[in-house]
Amino acid sequence: PQDELHVVESLELPSSDPQDLLELARARRWGHSVLLVDTNEFPENISAAAEGLKSITLIPALGLNVHSLLKHRTLVLTLD
């Protein structure tokens, strides 16, 4: 399927509410299994919002591995 790789400028949310992160994923059509890859430290709002969400996983760029890539349908990379 197409659109499995997305590159974004940065990951920012207005709050740490998990619904904001889910809405962002819906609006950008990331699907239901998303791996977000960023620098070693994610923005605080993103980390807090993703905590407990089964559909979105955060991983630092240095920790990216084949297993994580294969477990998720969509990969979102930041340019930061």
TrEMBL record:
Keyword Ribosomal protein assigned: yes
Name used for this protein in its record: Large ribosomal subunit protein uL4m
Family: Belongs to the universal ribosomal protein uL4 family.
Parts of the chain that traverse the membrane: none
Entry's Gene Ontology BP terms: translation
Keywords linked to the UniProt accession: Ribonucleoprotein, Ribosomal protein
Organism the protein comes from: Setophaga kirtlandii
GO cellular component entries: ribonucleoprotein complex; ribosome
SUPFAM superfamilies attached to this UniProt entry: Ribosomal protein L4 (SSF52166)
GO terms of molecular function: structural constituent of ribosome
Highest taxon listed in the record's lineage: Eukaryota
